[in-house]
Amino acid sequence: MRKMYDFKYLVNLRYEWIYMDYQIQYKKYEEGDFDTFFELVQRDEVMKYVTGKGLTEAEARAKFDSDLLVNKGHPSLGYFLVIDGNTGAVMGDAKLEFNKRDPQYFEVGYLLKEAYWGQGLGTKVCAAMLELAAQIDPTRDIIGIIDPENGASKRLLEKFGFTSYFIGIEDDLPTEKLILKK
Known about the structure:
InterPro entries: Acyl_CoA_acyltransferase (IPR016181), GNAT_dom (IPR000182), N-acetyltransferase (IPR051531). One of its GO terms (molecular function) is acyltransferase activity, transferring groups other than amino-acyl groups. The protein is an alpha+beta fold. It has a single domain (about 20-180), classed as 3-Layer(aba) Sandwich (Aminopeptidase). The protein contains 5 helices and 8 strands, in the order ββαααβββαβαββ. It has helices at about 35-40, 45, 55-75, 120-135, 150-160; strands spanning about 20, 25-30, 80-85, 90-100, 105-110, 140-145, 165-170, 175-180. The longest helix is centred in the middle third of the chain and has 17 residues, at about 55-75. The chain is globular, with a radius of gyration of 15 Å. The N and C termini lie far apart (about 40 Å).
């Protein structure tokens, strides 16, 4: 069993990070987590506002391998499993990374399984990623990228002070970008 660390005190475990925020735990993805990742991203409903549909196993493997490279590139940034601290069940995933198009910005994101929608967990997960961003670099602006049809995610980001600055098509997908200025 891995030791859990309080979210406010980050401890580097050779690219394996675990954060605790109340009953939610955040663990950086590692190679052995592919099956868990695939179980999440193959779901059409979960991926509706990300890619428009669930990923095939080959698409998921390519995405997962890319996420692992991000995780290895910085000791604190990356892609995380979101885990129920009471049951150990995987609720979804979250990310805090340098924006790929413009690395002067952080990018925040999350996915939750359908069973966890509408319970305020998106707010907790986003708050945890924003807290992590503030600990790493409190002066860096943060971007959230959503599907313009995803009203719930837009309201969540706006609750944290994000404002919209782009609506259009990017990578052949409908895209809205919001920014939190620091």
